[in-house]
Design goal:
With 409 residues, the protein is an alpha+beta fold. It is 39% helix and 20% strand. It has helices at 11-15, 17-31, 77-98, 118-123, 138-147, 158-169, 206-228, 232-246, 297-304, 318-324, 327-330, 364-376, 384-390, 395-406; strands at 36-44, 48-60, 66-75, 103-107, 113-116, 176-179, 185-192, 198-204, 250-258, 264-273, 311-312, 338-339. A five-stranded antiparallel sheet has the order 5-4-8-7-6. Helix 5 crosses helix 6, helix 7 (206-228) runs antiparallel to helix 8 and helix 12 (364-376) packs antiparallel against helix 14 (395-406).
């Protein structure tokens, strides 16, 4: 725009009334002797919306009087549009990364954090939040993690360990699994980017590790039974190793049965306890808790489908404890044990939950008649689970069912 078209014009003439109202306060401040800068969008009648940086300086005469002010304008529209486009792309990337079920972190060429998703922050919750902010170096992040006491590395060895990790990240090899507190495992995957940065993927593989370990322990115990001809020592060894693998405080092996009067019975056969955990077997104060029919509905349904249920007592809804009368004992310091939500040892009142009946070693004709009565509805089943199991079976299958269990010892 030629300078001749601007000379003698007011701000309102050049930019219009709306822009004048926006810019005029800066001119007033300059006339008051203030030097200032402002950056933002301004509408120009001929050029449209422009993004500019404006520098205001008062014009001060030697005598100290202010006769006006200078304005230096730099048009930054193109740079601003490019930055806004980059910001939009960044937001789209963040949305995509946030949808990952794995932990994700991106590090720049100087190994400083660029971004990470909420899953990554969750997996590193023990780290100071300041060490998860963009700009944090991997060194500070790694040292903070080790010193939090949640890894297998001693806190006093933090710097030596992180120094090795920094070297390893310069040329990452195959993924590796690292143990964390409470028996959890994390798979570490690091990859270099084309620009020289690093992408970190973290996957919780605790369930996979536990399944692998349990299968290995069971196979080992079975082998010992075949070799030694006895099952008690291998089972005791299995429970002790299983407790360490699962990262729990107690492991119990229990036997369920139904009495002739239809009462639910449960006996503890073996028990392993971590150091400092009071033994349950033989403790009279932990026997005979009544369990109502509406307790642990979700767990019972899962067990009826053949699933293995486990969890921490501290994470179990208090309503379930109140239903079974266990609130006091499960709120003790021992409440962070890993348990299978099984019913307590001993006989109950009529409200005792009846789950899996004793079918083995019963008379074949008695079993067949009872199963037919349950299926037809002539006799009320102890538990809806029985009806769910029996409904799909035809009479020939019931005969085979009774034949098999009558001979099972």
């Amino acid at each position: 725009m030629p300078a001749e078209e601007l000379i003698g014009k007011t701000i309102s003439d050049i930019f219009g009334e709306e822009s004048y109202k926006r810019l005029n306060p800066f001119g007033d401040r300059a006339l008051a002797g203030e030097s200032l800068e402002w950056e933002g969008w301004v509408h120009h009648p001929r050029l449209g919306d422009r993004y500019a940086m404006r520098v205001y300086r008062p014009y001060i005469r030697p005598g100290g009087t202010i006769d006006g002010y200078f304005v230096i304008v730099r048009d930054l529209t193109d740079e601003r549009l490019r930055q806004e486009a980059l910001d939009r792309e960044r937001l789209r990337l963040l949305d995509a990364v946030e949808s990952f079920s794995e932990g994700f972190a991106l590090w720049d060429v100087e190994d400083r954090l660029v971004m990470c998703n909420s899953r990554y922050r969750e997996m590193y919750a023990a780290v100071d939040p300041e060490k998860l902010r963009p700009g944090t170096s991997y060194w500070d992040h790694g040292v903070a993690l080790v010193r939090s006491g949640t890894t297998h590395v001693r806190p006093e060895d933090a710097e030596d360990y992180v120094r090795k990790r920094v070297l390893w990240r310069q040329n990452p090899a195959a993924p590796y699994d690292s143990p964390r507190q409470h028996g959890r495992w994390v798979r570490n995957i690091d990859r270099r980017t084309a620009e020289g940065g690093t992408v970190s993927i973290r996957i919780d593989v605790t369930d996979i590790k536990r399944r692998e370990a349990i299968l290995s322990l069971v196979n080992a115990a079975a082998s010992q039974v075949l070799i030694n001809g006895g099952w008690r020592p291998p089972v005791e060894d299995l429970l002790s190793r299983l407790g360490l693998v699962m990262g729990v405080s107690r492991v119990l092996l229990m036997q369920n049965s139904i009495s002739l009067t239809g009462e639910y019975l449960e006996d503890d056969l073996f028990e392993w306890d971590a150091p400092g955990i009071r033994r349950r077997m033989g403790d009279e104060t932990l026997k005979g808790f009544p369990i109502k029919d509406d307790a642990f509905q979700e767990v019972r349904a899962r067990r009826s489908r053949g699933e293995v249920t486990h969890g921490r007592v501290s994470e179990t809804p208090q309503s379930s404890f109140r239903r079974v009368g266990l609130a006091d004992s499960c709120n003790s310091p021992r409440s962070d044990i890993h348990c299978s939500y099984a019913q307590q040892k001993g006989r109950s009142a009529s409200s005792m939950t009846r789950t899996v009946p004793r079918l083995a070693d019963q008379r074949e004709d008695y079993l067949l008649k009872t199963l037919r009565d349950y299926k037809s509805g002539a006799r009320r089943a102890w538990e809806p689970i029985m009806l769910e199991v029996l409904q799909p079976l035809d009479d020939a299958q019931l005969v085979e069912f009774a034949y098999y269990f009558a001979r099972l010892r």
